[in-house]
Design a protein that fits this description.
The chain has 18 helices and 23 strands. By secondary structure, it is α/β, with parallel strands linked by helices. It folds into four domains: 149 residues, Rossmann fold (3-Layer(aba) Sandwich); 161 residues, TIM Barrel (Alpha-Beta Barrel); 90 residues, Rossmann fold (3-Layer(aba) Sandwich); 102 residues, NAD(P)-binding Rossmann-like Domain (Rossmann fold).
Length: 538
């Protein structure tokens, strides 16, 4: 993107982060003219978007949106709403699709009505964005400040991106472009092509060929890559004496399977490529860890052909062949802000920071493998805090570090909880759930009543005398139906901070004020860095 010449329209699903991205872009390029269509509509109408929707309806808003769009003055970059009619965008504008991997989940907005048929609208808009976009930027979760990798992406300031990407919307320097005969083909005027044969037996000449070994290898063909997406290496082992790169891309369901694949790759890292896949992207961190460790590695512009492929932002943010690393461990963990928050802190020490999903039942196996691979520090989130504590013979832990060969841990959640809850101690408070922060919440809120979210009843030794004024939500599950119906708390304080939080859903349902747990996250994360830095844990 040549930001000083081209005009851009930022599109994307609602809540993707278009407005905050526009604000950061202003900082990257203060000489350009920017506009936010929703803000211009509110100025023109003298009312909030949420009120326009509520009082006038969506049809009225869409007509108003068209009117204000045509009245916009000159601009270089403008952001528009998720339902904006892309046919209104003239050919002189380039469309930047800003997306997040969490877009597929309906976000909860306290100032906007829920979207009916969100999944249907999502699919329709997703296809439209994909069709019309000139470029794609997948935003990381929790990016609210300026960032060097983001600036490179927006301004197209790349030296040598490297890696391989499937059917990109633009050409990146030093990046191999994969085209596939089972996907809609595109024409690229470049010598950086990799042609993957998946269905037919025909292939172009004078390009690198990736041949699926399930098909008979044509006589005389010398493929660049021989690949399999099956869970067996038998077919690839037939070609170990060839010069081709052998690419193993199986669905991996366990940590033991992951380790077996890695052991195979390490036998001949110049020729063997291991690219594990999953249904939810849980091996994304491993693909990043393998950057620089094998002959071929894929990243993605949008959703790619696998969520395990790193995004461009992740790829650019990651060093080659790190010997050690840090991570946030949890389940779920895809929404975590920790990788962005701790990115600079650890990169200053040469360490990447990953987002790693671990089931509770996998803890011991996973932690041993991560230790061998070079993990030296970790933030731990629910429900793994209890497991981390058991591992080290302590109470629940959210902070781990390794000194020489010894692991130690601590918990900074108390400071985070104090920061979030200090102003509410004198009110009638009920804590709903608890999990790995239950004991800390008992210490921070000694006068509160504590309820089991599973049973919908007071915990042992706790009995509430009055209905709550404040409900502290500490349950990651949807347990709204368990809450006594006569409760009408005026305030919901959430221990979590993500867009799909059930606490936000409950606050919306009962029209209560809502406080996000972001303040708690930031405070405990600050303290984690203090431990890692001042105590020399890494």
């Amino acid at each position: 993107m040549e930001a000083d010449l081209d005009k851009f329209v930022i599109v994307g699903h609602r809540g993707a982060g278009k407005t905050s991205l526009l604000q950061r872009w202003r900082i990257y390029c203060p000489e350009l003219a920017f506009a936010d269509l929703d803000q211009e509509i509110e100025k023109a109408e003298g009312a909030l978007i949420s009120d326009i929707f509520l009082n006038q309806g969506e049809a009225y808003f869409r007509e108003l949106e068209r009117k204000v769009w045509h009245q916009l003055g000159p601009f270089h970059v403008v952001s528009v709403g998720g339902g904006f009619d892309l046919d209104l965008i003239s050919p002189e504008h380039k469309i930047l699709w800003v997306r997040r991997d969490q877009d597929r989940f309906d976000r909860i907005f306290l100032d906007r009505p829920p979207l009916p048929e969100y999944k249907k609208r999502f699919q329709e808009r997703e296809l439209n964005f994909q069709k019309r976009a000139h470029s794609i930027y997948t935003l990381p979760e929790g990016l609210f400040k300026t960032d060097e990798e983001e600036k490179k992406i927006l301004l197209n300031q790349f030296d040598n991106v490297g890696g391989t990407v499937t059917l990109p919307l633009q050409v990146y320097p030093g990046t191999l472009i994969e085209v596939r005969d089972d996907l809609q083909m595109k024409n690229y005027a470049t010598d950086q092509l990799l042609y993957s044969v998946r269905q037919g037996l025909t292939y172009p000449e004078n390009v690198k060929i990736d041949w699926d070994v399930r098909q008979p290898l044509p006589e005389g063909l010398d493929p660049y890559i021989l690949s399999t997406h099956e869970n067996s290496l038998k077919d690839l082992q037939l070609y170990e004496n060839t010069n081709a790169i052998l690419k193993f891309c199986p669905l991996i369901h366990s940590w033991s399977e992951l380790l077996e694949g890695l052991k195979w790759q390490m036998k001949n890292p110049d020729q063997y490529v291991f690219l594990p896949r999953s249904v939810d992207g849980r091996w994304n961190w491993f693909r990043l860890w393998m950057k620089g460790r094998q002959a071929l590695n894929f990243w993605r512009e949008g959703s790619g052909s696998s969520l395990d492929q790193p995004t461009l932002w992740q790829w650019l943010s990651h060093p080659l062949s790190p010997q050690q690393f840090a991570a946030v461990l949890g389940n779920p963990v895809q929404h975590s802000f920790s990788p962005v928050y701790h990115k600079s802190f650890f990169l200053n020490q040469g360490l990447p920071f990953y987002r790693i999903q671990i089931e509770e039942s996998e803890w011991m196996e996973a932690i041993q493998i991560l230790d061998k691979l070079g993990m030296v520090a970790a933030a731990v989130t629910s429900p793994l805090k209890v497991e981390a504590g058991k591992w080290l013979g302590q109470k629940p832990l959210n902070t781990l570090w390794k000194t020489k060969s010894t692991w130690s841990g601590d918990n900074t959640d108390r400071l985070g909880a104090e920061s979030l809850l200090a102003d509410y101690k004198k009110r009638i408070v009920v804590v709903w759930g608890g999990g790995g922060v239950l004991q800390i919440l008992k210490e921070v809120l000694p006068e509160a009543s504590f309820y089991s979210s599973r049973a919908g009843k007071p915990r042992e030794n706790f009995q509430m005398m009055k209905d709550p004024e404040v409900l502290v939500w500490a349950d990651p599950h949807d347990s709204i139906d368990q809450i006594p119906r006569h409760w009408k708390p005026k305030l919901i304080i959430d221990i979590s901070y993500h867009d799909q939080s059930v606490a936000k859903k409950y606050a919306q349902k009962i029209a209560a004020e809502y406080v996000s747990g972001l303040k708690m996250f930031v405070r405990q994360a600050e303290e984690q860095q203090k431990f890692w830095r001042e105590l020399g844990k890494i």
